[in-house]
Amino acid sequence: MAKFFYYLLFFITSLGLVLGVRDTYVDIAVKKRGEIIRAKIEKVNCHPRNGNLDLTYLNQSHFILIAYADCLKGKYRIGDSITVRALPEYRRTQLPNANTYGGIFAVIFIAILLFLWILARKEIMQYLSGKGNSKSG
Questions:
Q1: pLDDT by residue (tens digit) across 27-52?
Q2: What is the pLDDT of residue 36?
């Protein structure tokens, strides 16, 4: 059973790394190769953690994350047009001044975690099986 949990957690961490690398790559591609366009705001969703705008451009629906403070100030209104950077091949939009390099830190952190997970395989397996050293220090 310990092996199952080890490999399950290893798989989940690996999947997180792959998805993080993909999202970071797409964000950077949009920042570097995306074109500046005007999109129409269809809906404004104000939430403290993940406020977003539903946008329409090129007859396709998209969404973009926004700051909660901007949402509370009423910066975005339904029916207005907003300038965004878009790359249609990835169906991704972002604000023109968005910081897209933050994902690199998440990818590095998950890669280090995965590396340490592999190095400490024996100890983790012992811990998960209940045979780990219970003495402290």
A1: 899 999 989 999 999 999 888 888 88
A2: 92
| CA distances in angstroms from 107 to 25, 45, 51, 111, 137, listed in the order given | 11, 28, 24, 6, 33
Which pLDDT belongs to residue 137?
A: 47
- The separation between CA 36 and the C-alpha centre of its own chain, rounded to angstroms, equals 22
Pairing of strands 81-87, 60-65: unpaired
Name the strands in the sheet holding 81-87, side by side, starting at the edge strand that comes first in the sequence. 60-65, 52-57, 35-45, 81-87, 92-94
Distance between start and end Cα atoms, the chain: 28
Type and span of the H or E element at 83: strand 81-87
Q: What is the pLDDT of residue 42?
A: 93
83: which strand partners? 38
Mean predicted confidence (pLDDT) in 54-71: 86
Please state, in angstroms and rounded to a whole number, the distance separating the CA atoms of residues 60 and 56: 6
Sign of CA dihedral 71, 74, 78, 83: negative
Q: At what angle do helices 102-119 and 2-33 cross, to 10 degrees?
A: 160
